[in-house]
Structure formats: C-alpha cells, structure tokens
Write a structure and sequence with these properties.
283 residues; Urate Oxidase; 9-stranded antiparallel sheet; 5 helices; globular; oxidoreductase
Length: 283
C-alpha cells in the first residue's frame, strides 16, 4: 500500500506585539497578533526528516518583529503584504504563504482635542484583520476585514413567513430587537493598488446599512451588508461574512409583578445561530 503526503504546511500563530507610531501629533498604539502559514514545496521535511529547506519558526517570529519596525506607520494590509513577500523569498522552496494580521487600537485619552495625547485605553473589539496570500509566481491576494463586531437594533427588524414545522414554538415577529456578531472580510481586485481609505469606507457602509435597512432575517441582513461594501468600494471584488444571530429574548418579570415593555432582555452567549455568505462582483 502506497502512502502519499497529499498536503503539508506549517507556521507560527498568534505572534504578539505592540506597535507604536510616533510620527504624528498624537501617537498611535496598536496591539497586533500575526499568523504565518507556509504551505507546500518541502515534503522531504515531513517524510524524511531532512531540514535543509525548512525555515524555522524562530526565524519566522523574529522576522515579524524585525519587519514591524519598518511598518509602524503603515496600514496592517501593507504589513501583511510585506511579510508575505519576505517569506516567499526567505523560504524559496515554499509554494505559498498566508499572513494574517489582527489589530486592535488603543484610544487616546485626554480632554484637549488639539493637544498631543500620549496616554491610551485599550478597546478590545472590533478587531481589524488583514490577510495576504501569495503563491509563487502569481500576484498576491489581499483581504481586509474585521471580527468581533456586535450590532444591535431595538426596532426595524421582523421575522415572519418562515417554514412551519411540528417542532416550531416561536411566533412571527412584526417588530423585534435584533443582535448579531459579525466577522467580515473583503478582497481587493488589485493588491498592489491598495487604498488605505478602503477599510474606513467599508466599515461605514456596514454601519449605515445596518442602521437603515429593515431586516427580514439574519440571512437577509448579512447579504445586505455585503452588498453595501461592494456598492461603496469599487476596488473590492469579493466579500465574505460570517456571523451569529444573538438571541435576545424578553425576560419574563411577571412572577415578580413587574412589567417588561421591551426593556430587559437576555444576553446569554452560550447558544447562537451561525450563518455565512460570500458575495462576488459579477462579470
């Protein structure tokens, strides 16, 4: 019986760093986590234990730290592209490299709008994501995104007309509160022509569309948000969204003889309803 190594890859994940930019009136502080994955091209490392073409994970981690010093003022998309190009060179046998950078901002503290501010507070979510994928001999693909974005509507959401089933216990909602946690990612048509304004415009499109549209379901909302990103950002060719409908049910306060006219809702996170879509620009 022949045993064949069909796929192989390795890397380093969750490489942590704090990146401080000091080139502005107010400093900028970001917490970054970097994942690097190298795939293909070195089967002998796995099958025979021959390491002459193996780039160590120590070198991977140190390269992330060293290259970050030259990208303190850069967007994380540019940093991810630089790392992707570096590892294709430093590991010449590797067939492809994928670099994902997750970033969270520290917000400056201070009351004087025009005065320099050098103290910060950490804002854990949403997290900005950047992903560069390079295959040897091909142009790299570049993605931007965000994760951990929680959105909530107190009105403007319905849920009616759904399939009837013998196990169904809920009633239709002509108006309901609606909570969703999102991970969104969008791909650029040309990684080499990345525009640093794209992220802000895409995020604003998501926020504005969520606030404006009447949600018929979680699925309907995700599609509308993806459409909004493509409609706003002409440089984007593909949008992926994954999320979870966060159940927010009215708490029954009647045993305590207390009315609850849409004020107190459950906020448990142990059970969610996941969903995902991908939207592309047609020919």
């Amino acid at each position: 019986m022949d045993i064949v190594l069909s796929e192989h890859g390795y890397g380093e994940s969750s490489i942590p760093l704090i990146l401080v930019s000091r080139s502005r009136h107010t400093d900028r502080v970001r917490r970054l986590s970097v994942d690097v994955r190298l795939a293909g091209g070195i089967p002998e490392v796995f099958t025979d234990g021959r390491n002459e073409h193996l780039l160590s994970t120590n070198a991977i981690s140190n390269a992330v730290y060293a290259l970050s010093a030259d990208h303190a003022d850069a967007e994380t998309e540019e940093f991810a592209l630089a790392l992707c190009r570096h590892f294709l060179v430093s590991s010449p046998s590797t067939e492809s490299v994928e670099v994902t950078v997750t970033a969270t901002e520290f917000a400056p503290m201070g009351h004087e709008e025009n005065s320099p501010r050098h103290s910060f507070r950490y804002i854990p979510a949403p997290r900005a994501t950047s992903r560069a994928v390079g295959h040897r001999g091909e142009n790299p693909c570049l993605w931007s995104g965000m994760s951990g974005l929680e959105l909530f509507k107190t009105t403007g959401s319905t849920f009616t007309g759904f399939r009837q089933d013998k196990y169904l216990t809920i009633q239709p909602f002509a108006d309901r509160v609606f909570g969703v946690e999102l991970t969104a990612e969008w791909q650029y048509r040309d990684a080499e022509r990345f525009d640093g304004s794209s992220r802000a415009r895409a995020q604003e499109a998501i926020h504005e569309e969520f606030a404006a549209h009447i949600s018929r379901s979680s699925q309907h909302t995700l599609h509308r948000l993806a459409e909004a990103v493509i409609g706003t950002c002409a440089e984007v060719c593909r949008v992926r969204m994954a999320g979870a409908h966060l159940t927010r049910g009215l708490v029954d306060l009647s045993p305590f003889h207390v009315d609850n006219p849409g004020i107190v809702y459950t906020a448990t996170e142990h059970q969610t309803s996941p969903l995902a879509i991908e939207v592309t620009v047609g020919a």
